[in-house]
Amino acid sequence: MHSEAAFARLCGVSPIPASSGHTSAGRVRLNRGGDRQANSALHLIIVGRLRSDPATREYFQRRKAEHKTTAETIRCLKRHLARKIYRGLKTDLLTT
Question: Fewest Cβ atoms closer than 10 Å to its Cβ: which of 6, 13, 14, 23?
Answer without folding.
Answer: 23
